[in-house]
Amino acid sequence: MTTSAPPAPSRVPEAVHRRRWAILGTLVLALLVVVLDNSILNVAMKTIATPAPVGLGASQSDLEWAINSYTLVFAGLLFTAGLLGDRFGRKWTLLGGMLVFGLGSLLSALAASPGELIGYRAVMGLGGAFVMPATLAIIMNVFERHEQPKAIGIWAGAVGLAIAIGPITGGLLIEHFWWGSVFLVNVPIVAVALVAMFLLVPDSKDPNPGRLDPVGVLLSIVGLVALIYGIIKGGELADFLNAEAWVPILVGVLALVAFVVFEKRTSHPALDITWFRNKVFSASIGVVGVVFFALMGVSFFGVFYTQSVRGYSALQAGELMLPLAVAQLLFAPRARLVVDRFGVRATCAGGMALIVVGFLGYVFLGATTPIWVLVVLGFVMGAGMAHVMPPVTVAIMGSLPREKAGAGSALNNTFRQVGGSLGVAVLGAVLSTVYRDGVSDHLAQLPPALREKAGESLEATMAIAEKTHSAALIAPAKDSFLHAMHVVAGISAGVTLVGALLALLLLPGKVPAAPGGPGAPRKAEPESSPAKV
Prior knowledge:
Oligomer: single chain
Distance between the termini: 28 Å
Order of helices and strands: HHHHHHHHHHHHHHHHHHHHH
Structural class: mainly alpha
Largest sheet: none
């Protein structure tokens, strides 16, 4: 990467600059273990549901909350964790988060009941909330501006790699060890990462953090936790009009509105609301939320399509996600070259167009479609993601003052988490509703007591068909699922297309030339203490 203007004076101490790539490797290791964990857990669900001593005898509700307890704590504390990192030092919040995550992993592996597992997963979510924003904030403070896009591309590629290798790793562990191994595997990785972080990662923080804002922090936690809980509950019930769903959603929205009003009026806000006047910042944040909303459709129907419709094992289904990871690893670190040539707007819109093509491909998948088609679709979608996430992340972080990197990173991850949770709930509810409507006419042959249960999902229908020797149900159940998958894929394509239009209309041609774009006033850029070694 070259610039026509003379290079700006280095803001990163030489000792830190020399080891910047080793620091990035350490941060990627931390990121891998946190992101990989949830995708590993999905593979272990069936084993955890098996009665002791093989599993814990967890119910479907227990399994859902083993995931949701992590998500609630993680999403609810992301913003607060980013603020604390800016104030007290990102290295120490990162080390603390990794330590808590490792402890939660060890306790989860040793859980003796579903309730214990749910509680220990919440501990893991607490640790993860402090790790995620710190990794990106530290990148912004150890790399000079011209190298940040490349570093963020590697960071984004690592997220894609973790999502893809999680099911493969989980499948291998479940085949050879007990269910707790999917959590225990985190412990030695965390131990290595902690040592490397302590030795390599410099500390950095906001040199002028101002007074604490406990009211704003509390309102943000209440708002995010209540909103995510309501979204999750609505998805579980497939009914957002149920009071168990809309009441917490309403509480969450009201708390977040109160948060915004309070932050606009207080003299020491936790979040500078004027950041959102910056079109680059707001549009980039919006694109992140839209992309992750749409991508959750694949996570819902992809596993059922490969395993239940096509008959692949969990390990084989995980291997089919490798093309998506390979594409991200290949293209994400190089997305900056495309941005240099065509600009942020065209790169992101083009990446989202590739994701739309992938979703439209799912609309035409059938029970006997050659599997290489799925491989190609995964690669296309991975290539699209690789040209969306790095540029928008650079745009988000580049539009804010560098001393606010933790808050910016936390907002990036919070919108991704909220968008993803909303996608899980809404698209999951659509999938469930369309499937139930499609298969209901074929359930008349079952005893009345089993019909409602059989209509819940493809897995439930097939399990009851096997138990009652109703083989005639299998084919219509698969057909109904394929139709539901096509509907969800079509909706996801439409949502992503809206995101592409948003990118075309609002994103800039080029990333702002210096931190703190319009609407994000810059200070005189004091050294935000990245040199504490």
